[in-house]
Amino acid sequence: MAEQFQLRLADSFMLAPTVRHLSFERVDGQPLAFVPGQFLQVHFSYDDGKPTKRSYSVGTIGDGSSPVQRIEIAVSYVEGGAATKLLGGLEHGQAIDASGPYGRFCLMDGDQNKRYILIATGTGVTPYRAMLPQIETLLASRGCRVVLLYGARNETELLYGEEFDAFARKHEGFTFHPCFSRGPRPNPRPHDRLGYVQDMLAELEPRADEDIAYLCGNPNMVDASFAALKEHGLAVQHIRREKYISSR
Ligand SMILES: Cc1cc2nc3c(=O)[nH]c(=O)nc-3n(C[C@H](O)[C@H](O)[C@H](O)COP(=O)(O)OP(=O)(O)OC[C@H]3O[C@@H](n4cnc5c(N)ncnc54)[C@H](O)[C@@H]3O)c2cc1C
Fold first, then answer.
1. CA-angle at 191, arms to 186 and 171, nearest 5°
2. Are residues 171 and 192 both part of a single domain?
3. Candidates 24, 47, 56: which one to mutate for ligand 1, based on the most atoms within 8 Å of Cβ?
4. What ipTM, to 2 d.p.?
Protein backbone atom coordinates (compact mmCIF):
# COMPACT_ATOMS: atom_id res chain seq x y z
CA MET A 1 0.00 0.00 0.00
CA ALA A 2 1.26 3.50 -0.83
CA GLU A 3 2.65 5.64 2.00
CA GLN A 4 3.58 9.33 2.26
CA PHE A 5 7.13 10.09 3.36
CA GLN A 6 10.02 12.49 2.95
CA LEU A 7 13.18 11.64 1.08
CA ARG A 8 16.54 13.24 1.78
CA LEU A 9 19.09 13.36 -1.02
CA ALA A 10 22.14 11.35 0.09
CA ASP A 11 24.06 11.10 -3.16
CA SER A 12 23.79 12.00 -6.83
CA PHE A 13 25.77 12.00 -10.03
CA MET A 14 25.25 12.56 -13.74
CA LEU A 15 24.63 9.20 -15.42
CA ALA A 16 24.63 10.82 -18.84
CA PRO A 17 24.81 14.44 -20.02
CA THR A 18 21.04 14.86 -19.46
CA VAL A 19 20.25 12.22 -16.83
CA ARG A 20 20.83 12.59 -13.09
CA HIS A 21 20.99 9.59 -10.76
CA LEU A 22 19.62 10.47 -7.32
CA SER A 23 19.99 8.30 -4.24
CA PHE A 24 17.67 9.11 -1.31
CA GLU A 25 17.13 7.98 2.25
CA ARG A 26 13.77 8.14 3.97
CA VAL A 27 13.83 10.91 6.57
CA ASP A 28 11.79 8.78 9.02
CA GLY A 29 14.25 5.89 8.64
CA GLN A 30 11.47 3.46 7.75
CA PRO A 31 12.01 0.97 4.92
CA LEU A 32 10.02 1.29 1.71
CA ALA A 33 8.21 -1.98 0.98
CA PHE A 34 8.74 -2.10 -2.74
CA VAL A 35 8.39 -4.66 -5.51
CA PRO A 36 10.97 -4.23 -8.31
CA GLY A 37 9.33 -2.46 -11.24
CA GLN A 38 7.24 -0.10 -9.13
CA PHE A 39 7.51 3.69 -9.05
CA LEU A 40 7.19 6.49 -6.53
CA GLN A 41 5.71 9.97 -6.84
CA VAL A 42 7.43 13.22 -5.96
CA HIS A 43 5.06 15.88 -4.60
CA PHE A 44 5.83 19.57 -4.95
CA SER A 45 4.23 22.91 -5.89
CA TYR A 46 4.52 25.10 -8.94
CA ASP A 47 5.77 28.65 -8.43
CA ASP A 48 2.13 29.79 -8.03
CA GLY A 49 1.66 27.36 -5.10
CA LYS A 50 -0.50 24.84 -7.01
CA PRO A 51 0.38 21.30 -5.86
CA THR A 52 1.51 18.73 -8.40
CA LYS A 53 3.37 15.42 -8.58
CA ARG A 54 5.53 13.36 -10.94
CA SER A 55 6.28 9.65 -11.15
CA TYR A 56 9.74 8.02 -11.14
CA SER A 57 10.63 4.34 -11.35
CA VAL A 58 12.65 3.10 -8.40
CA GLY A 59 15.99 1.80 -9.60
CA THR A 60 17.41 -0.21 -6.78
CA ILE A 61 17.46 -0.09 -3.04
CA GLY A 62 20.83 -0.27 -1.35
CA ASP A 63 23.97 -2.00 -2.52
CA GLY A 64 24.16 -4.25 0.53
CA SER A 65 27.10 -2.31 1.96
CA SER A 66 25.01 0.23 3.86
CA PRO A 67 22.62 -0.48 6.74
CA VAL A 68 20.51 2.46 5.53
CA GLN A 69 18.08 1.77 2.71
CA ARG A 70 18.71 3.81 -0.41
CA ILE A 71 15.91 4.71 -2.82
CA GLU A 72 17.34 5.47 -6.25
CA ILE A 73 15.82 7.15 -9.27
CA ALA A 74 17.17 8.36 -12.62
CA VAL A 75 15.74 11.64 -13.86
CA SER A 76 15.91 12.69 -17.47
CA TYR A 77 16.17 16.39 -18.30
CA VAL A 78 12.99 17.82 -19.83
CA GLU A 79 13.22 21.36 -21.22
CA GLY A 80 11.10 23.70 -19.07
CA GLY A 81 10.01 20.81 -16.84
CA ALA A 82 8.91 21.66 -13.31
CA ALA A 83 10.12 18.41 -11.70
CA THR A 84 13.28 18.56 -13.82
CA LYS A 85 14.04 21.93 -12.20
CA LEU A 86 13.33 20.64 -8.69
CA LEU A 87 15.23 17.35 -8.97
CA GLY A 88 18.00 18.75 -11.13
CA GLY A 89 18.78 21.45 -8.57
CA LEU A 90 18.33 19.39 -5.41
CA GLU A 91 21.37 19.52 -3.15
CA HIS A 92 22.69 16.76 -0.89
CA GLY A 93 20.85 16.87 2.47
CA GLN A 94 17.75 18.56 1.05
CA ALA A 95 14.41 16.76 1.49
CA ILE A 96 11.38 16.35 -0.77
CA ASP A 97 7.87 14.96 -0.26
CA ALA A 98 7.10 11.63 -1.89
CA SER A 99 4.68 8.73 -1.83
CA GLY A 100 4.64 5.16 -3.02
CA PRO A 101 5.17 2.53 -4.07
CA TYR A 102 2.78 2.39 -7.04
CA GLY A 103 2.34 0.24 -10.11
CA ARG A 104 2.07 -3.31 -11.34
CA PHE A 105 4.91 -3.34 -13.86
CA CYS A 106 6.52 -6.27 -12.05
CA LEU A 107 7.68 -9.79 -12.79
CA MET A 108 4.80 -12.05 -11.79
CA ASP A 109 5.37 -15.21 -9.76
CA GLY A 110 2.74 -17.02 -11.78
CA ASP A 111 4.47 -16.42 -15.12
CA GLN A 112 5.74 -19.67 -16.54
CA ASN A 113 7.14 -18.24 -19.75
CA LYS A 114 10.31 -19.60 -21.26
CA ARG A 115 11.61 -16.21 -22.31
CA TYR A 116 11.27 -12.68 -20.98
CA ILE A 117 11.81 -9.90 -23.51
CA LEU A 118 12.54 -6.64 -21.67
CA ILE A 119 12.48 -3.51 -23.80
CA ALA A 120 13.35 0.05 -22.80
CA THR A 121 14.55 3.42 -23.94
CA GLY A 122 16.23 6.07 -21.78
CA THR A 123 15.37 6.02 -18.07
CA GLY A 124 12.80 3.32 -18.91
CA VAL A 125 15.57 0.82 -18.18
CA THR A 126 15.39 1.68 -14.46
CA PRO A 127 12.73 -0.91 -13.49
CA TYR A 128 14.80 -3.69 -15.10
CA ARG A 129 17.83 -2.66 -13.04
CA ALA A 130 15.66 -3.07 -9.94
CA MET A 131 14.56 -6.50 -11.19
CA LEU A 132 18.09 -7.94 -11.57
CA PRO A 133 18.05 -9.87 -8.25
CA GLN A 134 14.67 -11.39 -9.20
CA ILE A 135 15.94 -12.19 -12.68
CA GLU A 136 18.93 -13.95 -11.12
CA THR A 137 16.55 -16.18 -9.14
CA LEU A 138 14.37 -16.75 -12.20
CA LEU A 139 17.34 -17.83 -14.33
CA ALA A 140 18.61 -20.20 -11.66
CA SER A 141 15.27 -21.74 -10.69
CA ARG A 142 13.43 -22.02 -13.97
CA GLY A 143 16.13 -22.16 -16.59
CA CYS A 144 14.32 -19.57 -18.70
CA ARG A 145 15.98 -16.87 -20.76
CA VAL A 146 15.87 -13.10 -20.42
CA VAL A 147 16.69 -10.65 -23.21
CA LEU A 148 17.11 -6.94 -22.58
CA LEU A 149 16.79 -4.71 -25.64
CA TYR A 150 17.82 -1.23 -24.61
CA GLY A 151 17.58 1.72 -26.95
CA ALA A 152 19.86 4.75 -26.66
CA ARG A 153 21.07 7.30 -29.17
CA ASN A 154 24.73 6.58 -28.39
CA GLU A 155 27.01 5.00 -25.81
CA THR A 156 27.01 8.13 -23.62
CA GLU A 157 23.26 7.81 -23.18
CA LEU A 158 23.33 4.11 -22.35
CA LEU A 159 22.35 4.20 -18.68
CA TYR A 160 23.78 1.55 -16.33
CA GLY A 161 25.25 -0.22 -19.39
CA GLU A 162 28.23 -1.58 -17.44
CA GLU A 163 25.92 -3.08 -14.80
CA PHE A 164 23.86 -4.91 -17.42
CA ASP A 165 27.02 -6.04 -19.20
CA ALA A 166 28.44 -7.43 -15.96
CA PHE A 167 25.15 -9.22 -15.22
CA ALA A 168 25.14 -10.74 -18.72
CA ARG A 169 28.74 -11.95 -18.30
CA LYS A 170 27.73 -13.69 -15.07
CA HIS A 171 24.48 -15.20 -16.32
CA GLU A 172 24.42 -17.23 -19.51
CA GLY A 173 20.62 -17.01 -19.77
CA PHE A 174 20.66 -13.20 -19.85
CA THR A 175 21.40 -11.37 -23.10
CA PHE A 176 21.91 -7.62 -23.20
CA HIS A 177 21.44 -5.91 -26.57
CA PRO A 178 22.18 -2.17 -26.51
CA CYS A 179 20.51 -0.66 -29.62
CA PHE A 180 22.12 2.53 -30.85
CA SER A 181 19.95 4.72 -33.05
CA ARG A 182 22.73 7.18 -34.07
CA GLY A 183 25.35 4.73 -35.25
CA PRO A 184 27.87 2.31 -33.71
CA ARG A 185 29.92 3.12 -30.63
CA PRO A 186 33.69 3.52 -31.02
CA ASN A 187 34.40 -0.02 -29.79
CA PRO A 188 31.36 -2.08 -30.81
CA ARG A 189 30.55 -5.27 -28.89
CA PRO A 190 29.07 -8.47 -30.33
CA HIS A 191 25.59 -7.94 -28.85
CA ASP A 192 25.29 -4.32 -29.98
CA ARG A 193 22.56 -3.57 -32.48
CA LEU A 194 21.90 -0.51 -34.65
CA GLY A 195 18.51 1.12 -35.03
CA TYR A 196 15.36 1.36 -32.98
CA VAL A 197 14.42 -1.34 -30.49
CA GLN A 198 11.07 -2.04 -32.14
CA ASP A 199 12.91 -2.87 -35.37
CA MET A 200 15.09 -5.44 -33.56
CA LEU A 201 12.14 -7.56 -32.48
CA ALA A 202 11.98 -9.61 -35.66
CA GLU A 203 15.54 -10.82 -34.99
CA LEU A 204 14.35 -12.28 -31.67
CA GLU A 205 11.63 -14.26 -33.46
CA PRO A 206 8.99 -13.69 -30.75
CA ARG A 207 6.84 -16.74 -30.02
CA ALA A 208 3.32 -16.53 -28.64
CA ASP A 209 3.67 -19.80 -26.72
CA GLU A 210 6.99 -18.95 -25.04
CA ASP A 211 7.47 -15.24 -24.59
CA ILE A 212 6.32 -12.50 -22.29
CA ALA A 213 7.36 -8.92 -23.06
CA TYR A 214 7.83 -5.84 -20.89
CA LEU A 215 7.94 -2.39 -22.47
CA CYS A 216 9.02 0.73 -20.57
CA GLY A 217 9.85 4.33 -21.36
CA ASN A 218 9.06 6.63 -24.26
CA PRO A 219 5.34 6.25 -25.16
CA ASN A 220 6.05 6.17 -28.93
CA MET A 221 8.52 3.32 -28.48
CA VAL A 222 6.08 1.47 -26.22
CA ASP A 223 3.27 1.81 -28.80
CA ALA A 224 5.50 0.79 -31.73
CA SER A 225 6.92 -2.23 -29.88
CA PHE A 226 3.46 -3.24 -28.68
CA ALA A 227 2.17 -3.20 -32.27
CA ALA A 228 5.20 -5.17 -33.50
CA LEU A 229 4.83 -7.82 -30.79
CA LYS A 230 1.12 -8.23 -31.54
CA GLU A 231 2.01 -8.73 -35.19
CA HIS A 232 4.33 -11.52 -34.08
CA GLY A 233 1.32 -13.13 -32.39
CA LEU A 234 1.88 -12.23 -28.74
CA ALA A 235 -1.38 -11.94 -26.81
CA VAL A 236 -2.10 -8.59 -25.19
CA GLN A 237 -1.92 -10.13 -21.69
CA HIS A 238 1.64 -11.23 -22.49
CA ILE A 239 2.77 -7.66 -23.20
CA ARG A 240 3.17 -5.47 -20.11
CA ARG A 241 3.57 -1.74 -20.55
CA GLU A 242 4.80 1.26 -18.53
CA LYS A 243 4.59 4.52 -20.48
CA TYR A 244 6.50 7.53 -19.20
CA ILE A 245 3.78 10.03 -19.89
CA SER A 246 3.68 13.40 -18.17
CA SER A 247 1.36 13.14 -15.16
CA ARG A 248 0.47 16.85 -15.03
C1 LIG B 1 4.87 5.46 -14.29
C2 LIG B 1 5.86 6.53 -14.71
C3 LIG B 1 7.20 6.38 -14.38
C4 LIG B 1 8.11 7.34 -14.78
N5 LIG B 1 9.42 7.16 -14.47
C6 LIG B 1 10.34 8.08 -14.85
C7 LIG B 1 11.72 7.88 -14.56
O8 LIG B 1 12.13 6.88 -13.95
N9 LIG B 1 12.59 8.85 -14.98
C10 LIG B 1 12.19 9.96 -15.67
O11 LIG B 1 13.03 10.80 -16.01
N12 LIG B 1 10.88 10.16 -15.95
C13 LIG B 1 9.95 9.27 -15.54
N14 LIG B 1 8.62 9.49 -15.81
C15 LIG B 1 8.22 10.80 -16.40
C16 LIG B 1 8.13 11.84 -15.24
O17 LIG B 1 7.06 11.47 -14.37
C18 LIG B 1 7.86 13.25 -15.72
O19 LIG B 1 6.77 13.27 -16.60
C20 LIG B 1 9.08 13.88 -16.40
O21 LIG B 1 10.18 13.89 -15.49
C22 LIG B 1 8.80 15.32 -16.82
O23 LIG B 1 8.40 16.06 -15.70
P24 LIG B 1 8.72 17.61 -15.60
O25 LIG B 1 7.91 18.13 -14.43
O26 LIG B 1 10.17 17.87 -15.58
O27 LIG B 1 8.14 18.19 -16.95
P28 LIG B 1 6.70 18.86 -17.15
O29 LIG B 1 6.64 20.14 -16.36
O30 LIG B 1 5.66 17.83 -16.83
O31 LIG B 1 6.71 19.10 -18.70
C32 LIG B 1 7.40 20.22 -19.29
C33 LIG B 1 7.22 20.22 -20.80
O34 LIG B 1 7.89 19.10 -21.39
C35 LIG B 1 6.97 18.20 -22.04
N36 LIG B 1 7.39 16.87 -21.61
C37 LIG B 1 7.05 16.23 -20.46
N38 LIG B 1 7.67 15.03 -20.38
C39 LIG B 1 8.41 14.92 -21.52
C40 LIG B 1 9.30 13.94 -22.02
N41 LIG B 1 9.53 12.79 -21.37
N42 LIG B 1 9.92 14.18 -23.20
C43 LIG B 1 9.71 15.32 -23.88
N44 LIG B 1 8.87 16.30 -23.45
C45 LIG B 1 8.23 16.10 -22.29
C46 LIG B 1 5.61 18.59 -21.53
O47 LIG B 1 4.62 18.31 -22.50
C48 LIG B 1 5.79 20.07 -21.27
O49 LIG B 1 5.67 20.80 -22.46
C50 LIG B 1 7.68 8.52 -15.46
C51 LIG B 1 6.32 8.67 -15.78
C52 LIG B 1 5.43 7.69 -15.41
C53 LIG B 1 3.96 7.88 -15.75
1. 125
2. yes
3. 56
4. 0.95
